Amino acid sequence: MDKPKVVLGVSGGIAAYKACELLRRLTESGHDVRVVPTASSLHFVGAATWSALSGHPVSDQVWDDVHEVPHVRIGQGADLVVVAPATADMLAKAAHGLADDLLTNTLLTARCPVVFAPAMHTEMWEHPATQENVATLRRRGAVVIEPAVGRLTGVDTGKGRLPDPGEIFEVCRRVLARGVTAPDLAGRHVVISAGGTREPLDPVRYLGNRSSGKQGYALARTAVARGARVTLIEANTGLPDPAGADVVRVGTAVQLREAVLKAAADADVVVMAAAVADFRPAEYAPGKIKKKDGEEAPVVPLVRNPDILAEVAAERARPGQLVVGFAAETDDVLANGRAKLRRKGCDLLVVNEVGSARPSAPRRTRRSSSPRTERRPRCRTDPRKRLPTRSGIWFREGSRRCDNQPPGRARTVHNGMEQPPGRVDYPSGVRRVTGCRAPKGETHAPAAGCDR
């Protein structure tokens, strides 16, 4: 099988040196990469470097090797074009269809997915002209990753930093997997929570859980690759920010609630993948609670935390807003999942079975006579048969554009397989995930195989 052909465009910003790491990741993962730099970018990284790393000749001129018509052929033969860094000048040229060098010509001739990873100072990124150009590119189907927040050139700090090359690579990988299909979440705002909340007990202790946040981060990366504007609210994950997502950091359940309600005000989809502590200490001890000889262990009174998922589902900020919940269950997975789906009022519930080894074969139930398990005919525009959790949720949202799949109607998914009409293995709206090998009795153990 031929290697996927990727064109790496590099425009003239100081972040051009980071594109070397992106090139390395692409080539080492089996991609055939052709680097097309702009003339100004060669002031930062020379052509010899790009040629040595990619194994291909490098030029920024349309006049080199004219018999091969490179200004047309490079774009025509590409499976993906990624521009990193993409300066304000490059975004403007791409949005207005200018073609004054090899890279801009390549962008005009490419019929494959195109990804832009902007990098510039905050003022340039926030300028109305740049924002209009970004909106134009997204409207045409390009994926424009939101820049990261951090240290910029000189002493400046703010939004405009090139995302981590590893995260750009993850976006590229997902866009390549999507193929030439237009980003089906373009124009949608997605809010995702990830990680686990921690409720302080004293200055050195807290009540928490073992959620790693990896599932929420995977959902965020996939949503970005499918064109969505993503707000990721993370709680104590320690993971690098996904490229293209606006990241909000919280610690406790109360802080998570405030952040989710604020972000959900204009969201099309809210995915509550975070593990939220059900209880918190009634009082915070200002000093470390110490054990003392001859005294019993202190009693720590607990109070309930707010039910964020139920609140978001009950008081949707806009009509048609899709709300997705997650649950971890150790026993009676289906019954507990069905009860939680009904109690929370969300549209789709993903249930992780934890606390036991994965069964040798998936358990199936007989067809239920309950009307809640009846499904509408599957949309004929659906090209997929297997739906991984992170892709299945977004395909569920993207498919709402089909007249045959109304909003608020969750699909039944079992082990990644959408169930056809007349054969439903799990209750309506419940998505069962097996495979977590957490020890029996433990609420969650991501290190044991579960990626929630």
UniProtKB/TrEMBL annotation:
Gene3D superfamilies: CoaB-like, Flavin prenyltransferase-like. Its EC number is 4.1.1.36, 6.3.2.5. Binds 1 FMN per subunit. GO terms for cellular component: phosphopantothenoylcysteine decarboxylase complex. Residues 5-172 form the Flavoprotein domain. InterPro entries: CoaB-like_sf (IPR035929), CoaBC (IPR005252), DNA/pantothenate-metab_flavo_C (IPR007085), Flavin_trans-like (IPR036551), Flavoprotein (IPR003382). Keywords: Decarboxylase, Flavoprotein, FMN, Ligase, Lyase, Magnesium, Metal-binding, Multifunctional enzyme. Its cofactor is FMN; Mg(2+). Residues 185-356 form the DNA/pantothenate metabolism flavoprotein C-terminal domain. Pathway: Cofactor biosynthesis; coenzyme A biosynthesis; CoA from (R)-pantothenate: step 3/5; Cofactor biosynthesis; coenzyme A biosynthesis; CoA from (R)-pantothenate: step 2/5. It catalyses: (R)-4'-phosphopantothenate + L-cysteine + CTP = N-[(R)-4-phosphopantothenoyl]-L-cysteine + CMP + diphosphate + H(+); N-[(R)-4-phosphopantothenoyl]-L-cysteine + H(+) = (R)-4'-phosphopantetheine + CO2. Residues 1-189 are annotated as: Phosphopantothenoylcysteine decarboxylase. CTP binds at D278, K288, P306, D307, I308, L309, F326, K340, K344. Pfam families: DFP (PF04127), Flavoprotein (PF02441). Residues 356-452 are annotated as: Disordered. Residues 372-385 have a biased composition (Basic and acidic residues). One of its GO terms (molecular function) is phosphopantothenate--cysteine ligase activity. NCBIfam families: coaBC_dfp (TIGR00521). PANTHER family: HOMO-OLIGOMERIC FLAVIN CONTAINING CYS DECARBOXYLASE FAMILY, PHOSPHOPANTOTHENOYLCYSTEINE DECARBOXYLASE. HAMAP family: CoaBC (MF_02225). Catalyzes two sequential steps in the biosynthesis of coenzyme A. In the first step cysteine is conjugated to 4'-phosphopantothenate to form 4-phosphopantothenoylcysteine. In the second step the latter compound is decarboxylated to form 4'-phosphopantotheine. This is Coenzyme A biosynthesis bifunctional protein CoaBC. It comes from Streptomyces microflavus (Streptomyces lipmanii).
